Amino acid sequence: MLAQTYAGRIEVLVVHDQSDPDFSLELSAQDRAVRVLANGRRPGLAGARNSGIEEAAGEYIAFCDDDDVWSPGKLAAQVSRLEEDPSADFATCGITVLHDGRRHDRVLRRHTVTFADLLRDRHTELHPSTFLFRREAAHNGFGLVDEAVPGGFGEDYEFLLRAARRAPIAHVPEPWVTVRWGAQSFFFQRWQTMSAGLADVLAKYPEFESVRAGSARIRGQIAFAHAAQASRREACRWAASAIRRNPLEPRAFLALGVATGWVSPAAVMTALHRHGKGI
């Protein structure tokens, strides 16, 4: 992060969540600095992100998970995008997914993402390690990351939805962030957390019912998570509700395949990850 081509001052805040802060990482320089702090809020991703937001002093705030990497031009490209569109509070960019030695560029070829776009599709290209937003908007606009999302799953999606509901997201299509997918991911195969978190997002945004394909997508994901937990009845219930909204929703049929034992959840996830995709 310190190697960014962005000409302005950069302060990196390293937030330790449920671990002892390593103050040896701190660095003080005129244009580049590193500060280390502990998560002083609710344990978990959301609390750690909010601890950083509260301590940040710059005009812009950005996230980077500890297993992801920014390319040197990332900040410069996104700040330029926000400066050319003063009505936007929030910027994202494309990603390169690194999984099992394979690299897959995930590029969303548009320059603006609306609330309606995000209801239809999560757009996984908009990974939290791509998030850059105006500090003022977080404190006096769309607010902090929701720490009440069950298990913290889907907090990034909920944050995006809330920001986009206020103003469209400014997007830079180029993949400026490398995201590592695999067993090291905090949410890898945490099916109960996944189902609870997505159900919470669905409940908080009744607007999903106006975009039936978007509602079906999330219901299909919830169905798959229940199927992976061997909760066959719940998997079938959620799959049926997805199919009623969109008879072509593939996640619902994958969930039914897992629930009936036709395929294992591990086989589905391995196949998806091999192509840089998730459920």
Structure, explained:
- The protein is α+β, with helices and mostly antiparallel strands and 279 residues long.
- The chain is built from 10 helices and 9 strands.
- Strands 3, 4, 5, 6, 7, 8 and 9 form a 7-stranded mixed sheet that branches. Strands 1-2 form a two-stranded parallel sheet.
- A hairpin with a 2-residue loop joins strand 5 (90-99) and strand 6 (102-106).
- Helix 8 (232-245) packs antiparallel against helix 9 (250-259).
- The longest helix has 17 residues, at 212-228.
- The radius of gyration is 19 Å and the shape is globular.
- The protein starts with 9 loop residues before the first strand and ends in a 5-residue tail after the last helix.
